[in-house]
Amino acid sequence: MSTTALGRLLGRGKEAEIFEYGSKVAKLYAPGGRKEAAFREAAILASLEGAGLPVPIVWGVQRIDQRWGLVMDRVSGASFAERMRQDHLTIPACLEDMAQLHLRIHACAAVRLGSLTARLVSNIRNAEALDPSLRTTLLARLPGMQPSDRLCHGDFHPMNILGEPTEAVVIDWLDAISGDPAADVCRSYLLLQLNWPEIAVAYVDAYCRTAGISRRRVFRWLPVLAASRLTENVPHEVPRLLELCRAEANDE
């Protein structure tokens, strides 16, 4: 058992909290569970570190104050979200840097990760807010979507990118999955649309320019990703998500 005491709270998300922990940080999941999540994320981070991706170095999984979590190197510097909110003139450059990072992630093959399509099927089947006919329509779309074995972050947005652009580190890899990069970009668009809509389309455009793909390839994933998001139980998002479930893919 470690004798290191938790320090001050550095950040809080839906799944976990980040605390100072000596010279490192401890990411602790909610009390009463998530042991498997801590080991899963630790394994993902160890694998990605070996692949040379800019991720925090993980040192172990521990139970601290009755909560399971990871001990990792502390990443210095503000998030891209903080940088863009403090100075709107930095937004175009930050979005371009985000796109480059995202493309670097997608250049890697996913190793021993689950299937994005399988996750979407499961979530859509369990999305109680969907009426049966819409659920059937959305499930029918999935077999025709682009299959791929690329590494997808699953939660890629400006709060999860820390540090200076040339030394940025990507955090929160619990949702990493194997799938189509365009779907991962569309997931980023969806999260931005729900929380920072002013930059949502601009990010898609930055990625599409960098990757040489069309908006249409990204946005055709939007209805199924919105339906999947319904299972994440964010009540105020439900009306907007149901609207997006019915959306057609945007024109190129």
CA-atom Rg in angstroms: 18 Å
Q: Judging by the overall fold, what is the CATH architecture of the largest domain?
A: Alpha-Beta Complex
> What's the CATH class of the largest domain, please?
Alpha Beta
Mass-distribution shape = globular
Give the strand line-up of the largest sheet.
1-2-3-5-4
Low-confidence stretches: none
In the CATH hierarchy, the third-tier topology of the largest domain is known as Aminoglycoside 3'-phosphotransferase, Chain: A, domain 2
**Secondary structural class:** alpha+beta
Strand content: 15-25%
**Helix-strand topology string:** EEEHEEHHHHEEEEHHHHH
Overall pLDDT level: 92
Span of the ends, CA to CA:
56 Å
What is the number of independent domains?
2
- CATH homologous superfamily caption of the largest domain: Aminoglycoside phosphotransferase (APH), C-terminal lobe
Query: Could you give the count of β-strands?
Result: 9
Main sheet, how many strands, which sense, barrel? 5 strands, antiparallel
Number of continuous helical runs:
10
The helicity comes to 40-55%
